[in-house]
Amino acid sequence: MNQLVIANEVYRSRLLVGTGKYQNFDETAKALDASGAEIVTVAIRRVNLGQNANEPNLLDFLPKNRYKLLPNTAGCYSAEEAVRTLRLARELLDGHKLVKLEVLGDPNTLFPNVRETLKAAEILVAEGFDVMVYTSDDPIVAREFESMGCCAIMPLASLIGSGMGILNPWNLQLIIEQSKIPVLVDAGVGTASDAVVAMELGCDGVLTNSAIAMAKQPVLMAAAMKQAVEAGRAAYVAGRMPKRFYSAVPSSPSEGVISSGRL
Question: Does the annotation mark 100 as catalytic?
């Protein structure tokens, strides 16, 4: 199976994991380890990466050089906020280019504000950032982000933190079929079976945070997500059997079976 390539970098794992909502940084580190993820997201506005000198620093709990950090703009509601946040991330992380852009529409649904996201993406791409963009599951909007130079499309499966799984697989498939850059499901994954479905549809990867961090046993759920993404990808590559309605097909060959008339 071919590897995941984002912004010309190759990754073995197709599972991306967030670092928020855990009980503490120690639990975060253990869950990340169990997930097998290579890319981990960090909310610059919510997680300390050194901008707050008197608080625990997440980077102190992560093995150096093991993870590719993906700064994100969680909590931003305008293009201006998002661009400013990622510029700060670049300073904190010594010129880091790979970022996840999300601009929210309202604090209730956390649905993306597509107009502001498009505006921010255009600025960030022009400034040399490699932009992975969280967006709605609109195929036309996805095409816009790709055409302006984003390196990955991250349509929602359902609302952030809802755990509702993939509510519109048809739109997701349209985005997958038209895209020449990676498509990764972001938001709404609630359990391992949701990740399997996303990968079987042909997604290049899955990003999840709440499903792991809010599980009763986060470390165990992280391991389950790892296996789910791998199984879903293998099933997609293998190619499922066609669905046949109202037409039973025996799993064993019927040729040569002795009929009752020959007894």
Answer: yes
